[in-house]
Amino acid sequence: MNKADFVAAVAASAELSKTDAASAVDAVIEVVKKALKKGDSVSLVGFGTFEVRKRAARTGRNPRT
């Protein structure tokens, strides 16, 4: 499912126009991005938790060699 499909599903589920649903989805994404940039985690009960984690660098390989 891509963003357009998600917006259409939200619009149908909440009985909103697609433009209103797109605005709502964009607003949610922006709030999550801002929280993650500040170092906070976002927990949506029944859906999941978004958080930034540090990972070790991955070793790159050249497939032609």
Could you list some keywords that capture this structure?
two-stranded antiparallel ribbon; 65 residues; 2 strands; mainly alpha; 49% helix
Summarize this structure briefly.
This protein has 65 residues and is mainly alpha-helical. It is built from two helices and two strands. Helices cover 49% and strands 9% of the residues.
How is the secondary structure organized here?
Blueprint: H1 3-14, H2 18-37, E1 42-44, E2 48-50
Antiparallel strand pairs: 1-2
Helix pairs in contact: 1-2
Describe it.
This protein has a domain at 24-52. The protein has helices at residues 3-14, 18-37, and strands at residues 42-44, 48-50. 3% of the residues are buried. The chain has 65 residues and is mainly alpha-helical. Helix content is 49%, strand content 9%.
Overall mean pLDDT stands at 95
Q: How much helix is in the residues?
A: 40-55%
Q: Whole-number radius of gyration?
A: 17 Å
N-to-C SSE string, H for helix and E for strand? HHEE
Distance between the termini: 36 Å
> Based on DSSP secondary structure assignment, what is the total number of beta strands?
2
Low-pLDDT residue spans: none
Structural class: mainly alpha
- Percent strand equals 5-15%
Q: Specify the number of helices.
A: 2
Main pleated sheet: 2 strands, antiparallel
Spatial strand order of the main sheet: 1-2
3D shape: extended
